[in-house]
């Protein structure tokens, strides 16, 4: 009987759940943007916040590419307001025939409204979805737009996308252009603090890609305003020189071409270096396509074919020799491919990949023709490039042979886990953690401290090989790296398989000294170069052990930073002082010199994890309930790649310059 009543109640509830026409919600105007901001700007974190600036700048860049703007200014105002202005034509203000409102209000408040969907206003543009500035408006708590056009200044203000008044004519204006001032909405974004370095990096890139335009940035948030300007006549040639400023080039002349192919503008520059790593950047209508696409495919295909043809024609490759592979051709290459086309097909609003098949044809044709001319004209550079590629092929074959020898011995097949690994009992990757620790001492403490069911410990002896300077065969010959590869289970190189990762938290737990920082950096280089998917999927972390143990009487507290240590000491002293003031016999609290007696505070500086007993290590660093972990992310892969090259690469001069320029910033130095 009870069972039947329960079923009846459930049925009644289901019948009461309304699903009629009134239950279908229609979001109008800019409501969809505020409801689902991630669909339009990717995230409500730091990247999404800065995307508001990029959208405004993209519109100004489009005016520049159309030939109507020469100057763009970005102002970081007090209270985190931002102003973006240009000297383009200015957004039209006359009445739009379809909306019956000013074209300015239509552009600012309507999704998919703009001059980039047809006609001749913009032959090429980055913001082709027409949601850019209207999305900025929707996600700002306040926004003001000013337009100088037809001899007059027009303006309109908005609150969270809603106009406060109709577009009004304010005063006479002798110039033309658009200015957008916005205040990002704290109800939408996790943080509204703009990062000047991030903005400078983006604007520098845009200035390289649009040669001949001036981009200014003014930061008025500080007592003394910061001012910087970008202006490059060389375009991609200047960009290549900037990217390659710390490398030793193979060739003397940078390859450069800039041609049109059936209404597609193709621009490319590249140079070879005496390095193993390569850098390939691609852009479509000035939008960075992080995942490449058809234009980068066309470039690679043309580069490989043309260099192979040249090598055979000039007897660098014999009839019996195999062709140079794409990997051989791209080793040590720094290249930029930038195309401009009328109807780019991007994957999603974030525009990470270009899908136009005609882009591949255009790039392939232009590179084939231009590179042949370059190789014939610059025979010394051609020989240097081919010899670099042949050397890469020879090294690849040697590395493959060495790797195959290692693999035949079965060391990476996962049949035998390294003896030094104290594995966890769980076989579920989602709950398993691997702590990579420095040395046997720390390994011993962490093995005693861990939760054996979910936490595994892998101690490494000394500093691992710097993989920035080594090929895969040398890497696999390194005992410590081999142990790590076997422990995590993914294999390495061409055999890498993320689905076989045995732990979904890999935690680097090194000592809080210079050696510990060096070991952590070496491990980060290893993961960045050979296990980047582990980082991209959020599986790599850095442990945060305390720097100090502070004891006063029976009270023990831990400090993780210098400032935290000072705060704890101040708190303890204040508490003891308050207690002292309440004592009856105050004379006993004053010594002969009239100085108040404060109970002694013992401060221990941890330089190594081995100095902590297992209880302390568990409580402060390994207990999921109390610990602090830093997740390793790659917000700017280009900058990370450059920094690893500077700090860990073959060239000494960039590293020396980096150290000298930052010498005065050193706070803690182990001697």
What percentage of residues falls in helices of 4 or more residues? 25-40%
Q: Helical element count?
A: 21
Q: Mean of the pLDDT scores? A: 83
> What is the makeup of the main sheet?
9 strands, mixed
The CATH class of the largest domain turns out to be Alpha Beta
Shape: globular
> What is the CATH topology descriptor of the largest domain?
Rossmann fold
Topology, please?
Blueprint: H1 2-16, H2 31-35, H3 38-41, H4 46-65, E1 71-76, E2 81-86, H5 103-109, H6 132-138, E3 140-149, E4 152-159, E5 162-163, E6 168-172, E7 177-184, H7 196-209, E8 214-219, E9 226-230, H8 236-243, E10 255-261, E11 264-272, E12 279-284, E13 287-288, H9 294-313, H10 326-330, E14 333-340, H11 357-377, H12 379-408, E15 433-438, H13 439-449, E16 455-460, H14 472-476, H15 479-488, E17 505-509, H16 514-530, H17 532-536, E18 540-543, E19 548-552, E20 555-559, H18 562-581, E21 602-605, H19 614-622, E22 629-631, H20 637-648, H21 652-661
Parallel strand pairs: 1-8, 12-14, 15-16, 15-17, 17-18
Antiparallel strand pairs: 1-2, 2-7, 3-4, 3-7, 4-5, 4-6, 8-9, 10-11, 11-14, 12-13, 18-22, 19-20, 19-21
Helix pairs in contact: 4-6, 4-7, 9-11, 13-19
Give me some keywords for this one.
Ribosomal Protein S5, domain 2, alpha+beta, 5-stranded mixed beta sheet, 21 helices, 3 domains, Heat Shock Protein 90, 9-stranded mixed beta sheet, Rossmann fold, 22 strands, about 675 residues, disordered N terminus
Task: Describe the model.
The protein is built from 21 helices and 22 strands. The protein is α+β, with helices and mostly antiparallel strands and 671 residues long. It has 3 domains: 200 residues, Heat Shock Protein 90 (2-Layer Sandwich), CATH 3.30.565.10; 168 residues, Ribosomal Protein S5, domain 2; 226 residues, Rossmann fold (3-Layer(aba) Sandwich). Strands 1, 2, 3, 4, 5, 6, 7, 8 and 9 form a 9-stranded mixed β-sheet that branches. A 5-stranded mixed β-sheet has the order 10-11-14-12-13, sandwiched between helices. A hairpin with a 4-residue loop joins strand 1 and strand 2. Helix 4 runs antiparallel to helix 6, helix 4 runs parallel beside helix 7 and helix 9 packs parallel to helix 11. The protein is globular and about 75 Å long. The N terminus is likely disordered.
